[in-house]
Amino acid sequence: MKQFGQLLLAAVLGSTCTIAAYNWLGNDNNGVKIEHVSNVPTSTVALNSAGQPVGLDFTATAEKVTKAVVHIKSSSETTVAKGNPNDPFQFFFGPNNQIQKQPSQSSGSGVIINADGYIATNNHVVQGADIVEVTLSDNRTFKAEVIGTDPDTDIALIKIHEKELPYLSFVNSDNSKVGEWVLAVGNPFNLNSTVTAGIISAKGRNINIINSNRPNLFNSQGQQENQPNTAIESFIQTDAAINPGNSGGALVNLNGELLGINTAIASPTGSYSGYGFAVPSNIVSKVVEDLIAFGTVQRGWLGIQIENVTSEVSKREDLGVNDGAFVNGFGDAADKSAAKAAGIEKGDVVVKLDETDIKSSSALIEYIGRKRPGDKVNVVVNRKGKLLTLPVTLKNKDGKLGTIKREEKDAVASLGMELEDLDAKTLKKLELNTGVKVKSLENGKIARYTEMRQGFIITHVNDAEVKSAKELNELLKKKKTGDLVTFSGIYEDYPREYIYAIRF
Fold first, then answer.
1. How many angstroms separate the CA atoms of 23 and 36, rounded?
2. Residue 247: active-site member
3. pLDDT tens, residue by residue, 79-118
4. pLDDT (0 to 100) of residue 121
5. pTM listed for this prediction
6. Number of C-alpha atoms within 13 angstroms, CB side, residue 77?
7. Among 30-39, 293-302, 373-382, where is mean pLDDT lowest?
8. What Rg do the C-alpha atoms of the chain give, in angstroms?
9. Residue 243 and residue 179 in one domain
10. Which of 294, 328, 347 is the last residue of a domain?
11. Residue 300 lies in a domain
12. Are strands 217-218 and 224-225 parallel, antiparallel or unpaired?
């Protein structure tokens, strides 16, 4: 019995040790460190203060994790048109007298992943926000900067200017097991530092939620265009209670290591009904490291269209296999496809990538989504019963091998405007020497903070004449945060000058 007790104690102590494995990014990340740890088996027993084994206890893990989970409040202001747009009095008083501003606020959670204030959360928690406010577990509040977002995984990275913060280390989510105990930590219903417990119910779930609310795109003929689904969904499913406000919070193992970022729930009511979903830590880690190092996510592309191998697909295509990712084509960009260039054919079934078995299309998407352009992957396909290994060098979304530089966002687009140049005939008709037309307005600063409407012709930015959309963009790029910018101009159907102002 004494020997058994010693063995049990050794197992418990071994299960609670972590092997520090620091993952340093390149010089481009300004020395930012994101910590990863090796997976260490968790134990279903713990030791009390007397060193005696006791039943399962979550208290130490909960205390560690809650210190690194924050409450996020995002606020913005939108404008809503009221009244009759055909009101004849608008000819005298302008087209904008019936616009009302409506404040909007949402809340969620975030996980501190670095002692210097880097925080991982969901893209939908901070999307479109003008102000992002972070409250720590000790009730200190900070304004946060959005470092970058990745709508395809619903992950965002924000930062507060504070040092020596408690943080969570990433652990390899591939090694997590169905049935493993996990804790979900977040701020549901604005209730700070809430901890729930459960198990991993499933892995590799695709619930078609990311990109599901994308606006429809139409071509110049007014026809709706098909948009490629670039979402990467391979969620960890858990029965730990997750509710609105938990988005962006932590899913951890019993060592308090980050297994995922809580993102969604499956519910007919909008509240917890038994299933929650988290983005695996391996995906989160790749996204945030790219955002820090490159400013944008570097995503490798195979360039294939795939679907799950089901009994129906297997019978229809006479595949002879029951799982995997069936290649049903290469889309409209076959000439850019890395897979096609490497010899993969329509009708192949991808069954393995490197040493990882591929049982579904979501497993393939997750694995490739963690790679960068230029990475080499050995793709094993089943082609009419024969296994072939085809080395593929992944390309970027443009069909090239190099990493994609961060797009310097068009200053005009960042304000939510699309402009078009005016020809000499139109300028002469309006008795103008210069000017550009606002072709459309989206939910940006212009729409939120001014009453400018589509069709406005900008003639001056501050005191400078505007001759073209390109010139206007160059003028705005020179502005700094806090600068006041005025847009002067006219509407074609209204006789007076209008001036709109925003602060960068």
1. 6
2. yes
3. 444 444 444 444 444 455 444 555 678 899 999 999 999 9
4. 97
5. 0.72
6. 11
7. 30-39
8. 27
9. yes
10. 294
11. no
12. antiparallel
Give the tokens for residue 371: 């790679």
Kind of pairing, strands 194-205 and 235-238? antiparallel
The whole-number pLDDT of residue 399 equals 85
Greater confidence (69 vs 496) lies with: 69
Q: How many domains does the chain have?
A: 3
Distance CA 30, CA 263 (A): 29
Q: Which of 364, 393, 422 is at the close of a domain?
A: 393
Please tell me which residue in 76, 109, 201, 247 is annotated as part of the active site. 247
CATH number for 470: 2.30.42.10
Domain shared by 141 and 282, yes or no: yes
Among the options 43, 74, 106, 154, which is catalytic? 154
CA 244 to chain centre: 17
Tell me: do 369 and 455 sit in the same domain.
no
Active site residue 323: no
Of the candidates 124, 169, 285, 460, the residue annotated as catalytic is 124
Q: Is residue 350 part of a domain?
A: yes
| pLDDT at residue 29 in the model | 56
Domain region containing 200: 64-209+231-294
Cβ burial, residue 382 (10 Å; 0-12/13-18/19+): buried
